[in-house]
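Worked example

This section walks through a single chain of length 154. The input is the sequence exactly as stored; nothing has been trimmed or padded.
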Amino acid sequence: MTDASSHVHLINNLLKNIKSSTRAEYIQPCPGGLSIATNNVPAPSDLTLIERYIKSIDGINNDEVLTPRLPQSKSYLKITRIPYIQPNGNRLTSEDIINFIASADIFETISLASKPRVIKASPKLDMAIIWIDIWDSQNGAKAKLLINHSFNYR
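Given that input, the structure is written out below as tokens.
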């Protein structure tokens, strides 16, 4: 039995033990992690069980194992009217935006799909344009919650 197929077999035994109808069909590496194909949409309890199993494999760094998620679409959003030069005199960075998104209530259900991009709006203006990519549903439900909504930055 190959390594991947033995993991599929063990995951399926665990799923069977909790009386889940979900079964893993195959596991393959993909950019940023693993892709596990299943016969139906896994329940949250199935995803938790799979996460625990992945973390139990020898040689896996538990800190690098992210919470399993179902396939999602990306939405791209533009944030305007943010000062490019911060009160401390430094330029606005992607890390500043990541920290802000992590702490702002309006973004509490938002997960970034990539690092935000900060662009100075104009050479003469002290304003930035921030482009963010978020994980979203296919119909853009999370993006719709943010579009045309205001928030205070600092």
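What to look for: The first strand starts at residue 24 and ends at 30.
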